Amino acid sequence: MTAKQPSDAKSDKHKRAMQKQKAKVDQHIEEAAEERGVLIVLTGNGKGKSSSAFGMVMRALGYDQKVGVIQFIKGQQLSGEEIYLRDHCPQIDFYQMGTGFTWDTQDRDADIAAAKITWAKAEAMLKDDSFQLVILDELTYMIAYKYLDEQLILDALRNRPDNQSVVVTGRGGGSALQELADTVSEIKEIKHAFKAGVKARKGVDF
Ligand code: ATP
Ligand code: MG
Question: Which alpha helices (DSSP H) does 32-160 contain, by range?
Fold first, then answer.
């Protein structure tokens, strides 16, 4: 019998580690017995919050689920996902705050009025159990800038239908929202092309 090569030992060690990891994951899967919708908050300074939310829209559409999308920010231009959903997925309820808040907002009263109209659309979805997934894109800023009442938002999220999942995106948003959420991910910026002078790109940034 030949002596074990170092690479065999390494591979055995890897195998044992993987088995251990799998046992852990399997145990978690077995323990997770509850069936209900979840509240997900995607926050942090790095790129990838809204695009992750739209990834979940794709997933839900794959199972013919009913999806609602509310964007609490008026973009400089239409974003690619908005164009695509409008043209190819008429079954999706998509609403973008048409007036008011942009990144260089100046008229607080007009912003608040627009935020309230937009929130009314969101609130209706949060009461409608036919929506299995609701995206509230950039909602955190409405809380941070006090455009909308935080308690009102938290109550509507808390009292939504059992089977409904909600994804909230945006930086900040406060600890109460994070406490209420089932899943919170913070996307940390390591670097961003923009800071090296690269222009925002169609299909990547919007
Ligand atoms: P995305 O929509 O690409 O997933 P996001 O939702 O995480 O990004 P937002 O804060 O909503 O990020 O910003 C939207 C726009 O700003 C996108 O064009 C995105 O590429 C850009 N962006 C995101 N993070 C940064 C950053 N750290 N520096 C500069 N621009 C950023
Ligand atoms: Mg975003």
Answer: 49-62, 80-88, 108-126, 139-144, 150-158
